[in-house]
Design goal:
- The chain is an all-alpha fold.
- 65% of the residues lie in helices and 0% in strands.
- It is built from 2 helices and no strands.
- The chain starts with 7 loop residues before the first helix and ends with a helix.
- The relative contact order is 0.05.
């Protein structure tokens, strides 16, 4: 720790401040409960992703069909 400029006196000072409650950011906190996911929101997101994927597939299919029409016209 000395290589980094941290000495034992500084560590004991920080520990004392933490014990006294001065350093509130260093005190361990109990985590709250996880938020409940809305199943409708999850399904909505899933359907939006599926819709975007299918729209992209349809766009690619239209491009392929247009190219095939042009090749067949030659």
């Amino acid at each position: 720790l000395r290589r980094e400029g941290l000495y034992s006196s500084l560590l004991t000072y920080w520990r004392r401040e933490r014990a006294d409650g001065i350093l509130e950011a260093l005190t361990p906190r109990k985590r709250g409960p996880k938020s409940q996911r809305n199943p409708l929101e999850e399904e909505n997101q899933k359907l939006r992703r599926q819709n975007a994927r299918l729209s992209e597939d349809l766009r690619k299919a239209h491009i392929i069909i247009d190219v095939q029409k042009k090749v067949a016209a030659l």
